[in-house]
Design brief:
- The chain has 455 residues and is α+β, with helices and mostly antiparallel strands.
- Among the domains are: 65 residues, 2-Layer Sandwich (GMP Synthetase, Chain A, domain 3); 63 residues, 2-Layer Sandwich (GMP Synthetase, Chain A, domain 3), CATH 3.30.300.
- 17% of the residues lie in helices and 33% in strands.
- It is built from seven helices and 29 strands.
- The strands form seven sheets. An eight-stranded antiparallel beta sheet has the order 9-8-12-13-14-11-10-24, covered by helices on one side. Strands 18-19-20-23-22-21 form a six-stranded antiparallel beta barrel, surrounded by four helices.
- Helix 6 links the parallel strand 6 and strand 7.
Length: 455
């Protein structure tokens, strides 16, 4: 896990570049709303106008030819919408979705019912019939999560749902450790896979660089994404960076803000409220110090491209390997992380991950380096926004504030985080969510068929 350490050893100073810089619904009880101009998923997510820094890094790190990076981002945006529609249509038979190929042109959707194959193909996707549903795989992983609260996991540092392989995998430093962990969870004979690797995820710490912030004048971390709560501006970061009430100063050592909430371990998230000398922006520092902007937080599929900003190694790209990954650091276990092929090194911790212009999460830890390659894990941004009632700062300026949780038939509201499969009403019509995201003022269900499906 990502621990907190002072200069004397209790707090590790983590560094990464961030995004904070100085400086009426109408009622339609009797009729459906008029149809809105259709927008493609790529237009909704901004994939048709990607930042130049993202394209350059994707071409470099994913070995893409000119034009392939742009094509890939558009394909991934459209694939996410198609996968969401199929997820809702297949219901309990759904077993996951992922993209493949240099331009992510191949979308694969898995089901446990062969009768679903024609429906999957009708959406232009490749169909795979598998043994277990995604819900069943998540249940198996939850059992491992529960076991990890009392079992020793030093030699089994990672476990996750491997959607393409339709199984849960335990990554261990030796086979015997994985066997013992699986046995302790009562999952023998449940076809839980084992991956033996000498890599141990670690904190990415102790390298100076980037626009850092300092905690209690003794530790250093970096900003992930700018956020607001009501009228209060601030930024999201990793939970191991500080405790509630800790004060912060900026990269220039000027007074900056205070930790409002912090969760670690189990999750790795925090948010810091800043004073009036600091202004929240939608910016993320990219390659060569150039800034790109985030336009939302739509969760990308397994296999999709993703880029990371870090103060040590700068701007690097890779692909998403798994969502819902549990990682056992020396300081504790964090659940619900996403594993990627993006490289990172000490000092990159806490930096933002983006897919196209969609915010994905903040660096939690990793292994390897940017010379020989490595693996990194990030805390997804949507749970941070949901848990703390925050609104992601996006471009153009987003409106709306988080609304309190309601039941499945809740009225759609900007600022609320919606998970795939959630249902809402808007202008008297029911919709079902296709892709997990935080709703924005311009992203009403009727205007965003890439995110919502009318029921």
């Amino acid at each position: 896990m990502l621990g907190r350490h002072t200069a004397a050893g209790r707090r590790v100073a983590l560094t990464a570049l961030g995004t904070l810089v100085l400086t009426g619904a109408t009622s339609a009880a009797t009729a459906a709303p008029p149809p809105a101009p259709a927008s493609t998923a790529a237009q909704t997510l901004g994939a048709d106008r990607p930042p130049a820094a993202v394209l350059r890094a994707m071409e470099r790190d994913l070995n893409l030819k000119p034009g392939q990076a742009e094509e890939r981002l558009v394909n991934e945006a459209e694939a996410g919408a198609r996968a969401g529609r199929l997820r809702n249509a297949l219901g309990k038979h759904f077993a996951g979705a992922w993209v493949r190929g240099a331009t992510s042109a191949e979308l694969t959707v898995a089901t446990t019912d062969a009768a679903d194959v024609s429906a999957i193909k009708a959406q232009g996707a490749k169909a795979v019939v598998v043994k277990r549903t995604l819900a069943e795989l998540q249940t198996l992983k939850n059992t491992l999560d529960s076991t990890a609260r009392t079992a020793k996991t030093r030699d089994t540092p990672v476990w996750y749902v491997d959607v393409p392989a339709n199984r849960v995998v335990v990554q261990a430093t030796k086979q015997s450790a994985a066997t013992d962990f699986i046995k302790a969870a009562g999952l023998e004979g449940k076809d839980v896979g084992v991956r033996v690797s000498t890599m141990r995820p670690r904190l990415l710490a102790d390298v100076v660089g980037g626009e850092a912030y300092y905690i209690e004048s003794s530790a250093r971390c970096s900003i992930g994404f700018s956020v607001t709560k009501d009228q209060q501006q601030g930024f999201a970061s990793a939970g191991h960076c500080g405790d509630q009430g800790d004060s912060t100063t900026g990269y220039n050592m000027a007074n900056q803000g205070t930790f409002q909430s912090s969760t670690f371990p189990n999750k790795d998230m925090s948010w810091i409220a800043v004073n009036s000398d600091w202004t929240a922006t939608a910016d993320v520092k990219g390659e060569g110090g150039q800034r790109t902007q985030v336009t939302g937080s739509v969760q990308a599929l397994v296999g999709a491209s993703i880029c990371r900003s870090g103060s040590t190694t700068g701007w690097h790209c890779g692909t998403i390997q798994q969502h819902d990954t549990s990682v056992s650091y020396a300081q504790g276990t964090v659940d619900g992380l996403t594993q990627t092929t993006v490289c990172a090194e000490p000092g990159d911790s806490g930096g933002p991950y983006v897919s196209g212009s969609q915010a994905q999460g903040v660096t939690s830890g990793g292994s390897g380096n940017c010379t020989s390659g490595g693996t990194t894990f990030y805390q997804p941004i949507n749970p941070i926004l949901s848990d703390f009632g925050l609104v992601l700062k996006t471009a153009p300026t987003q409106s709306g504030t988080p609304a309190p949780p309601e039941n499945a038939a809740e009225t759609w509201a900007a600022g609320r985080v919606y998970e795939a499969g959630a249902t809402v009403t808007h202008a008297g019509v029911r919709y079902q969510c296709l892709q997990s995201h935080q709703a924005q003022g311009g992203w009403s269900p009727v205007a965003t068929p890439a995110l919502w499906e009318r029921l």
